[in-house]
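Box 3.1 A note on notation
Throughout this textbook, protein chains are presented in two layers. The first layer is the amino acid sequence; the second is a token string describing backbone geometry. Keep the layers aligned when reading.
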Amino acid sequence: MFEARSKGRIGLCFFLALLFCALHPALRASEAAASTGNLVGFIYGQDATTPVSGAVITLKSIATGSSFESVPTDSQGVFRMTALAAGVYAMGVTSPAGGFNASNMVGIKANETAKVSVALQPYEKEVAQAVSQVNESQTKAGESRVGRIVEFLPGTVEGQVFIELGLLQQNDRIHVLGERTDFYQDVKSLVFQGMAVKRAFGGQTVQLKLIKPAEAGDIVYIVCKRGIPPIFLSPLGIAAIVAGTGAIAYGVIEIPDDPIPVSAFK
């Protein structure tokens, strides 16, 4: 009797061990799935209403540098990407016409589905040429020399910046560097010939507010978004996120608490 019970216990233990071994990979897979999320959305043309079919969305992880691609959008411009590791991603869109870099980043939360609507907005020819020049330089060092300070106005803490190459835009992150100068800031405003502008091109001298004193001759660099070069080196324009729960503002890595909903996915 005792021997039979012992054999029964041993058999049960052996069975449970086999069951654990069989379930262990599934448990690990379940844990991995729990730390991933999804991204769905629409790709539209410049009017933000005409669907773009055949577009491929590329995401590049800010944490790891790994890239992921979607299958081409359908006739309604819809795309879906699943099992993405939670985190922040740079985004680009390859359309039948060419590539577009997103101006904002995309945030993925574990066990949630982020939703975005994207409008592909082509650059004007002058802007496209300038962006191409800046991007080629950015990929080499993470920063791109865009100009130099020709005059500093201590009373208003403003600098006159001559744009040497490419372009400088509002919300760009810049690095001002000289023999006694070294600081970073975001461009909040640009003034060209007495008028506020959104961007300045090579050959122009613009005035901008600085957060610290600078000196004539200091170099002004544009800094890549969190050190990550753009998805495409010569983009046709911007993939503008016009609505969604996954958009992250420039330079911010937290998803907004009160995002704009995408009506089709409510």
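The first strand starts at residue 36 and ends at 44. Confidence is low (pLDDT under 50) at residues 250-266.
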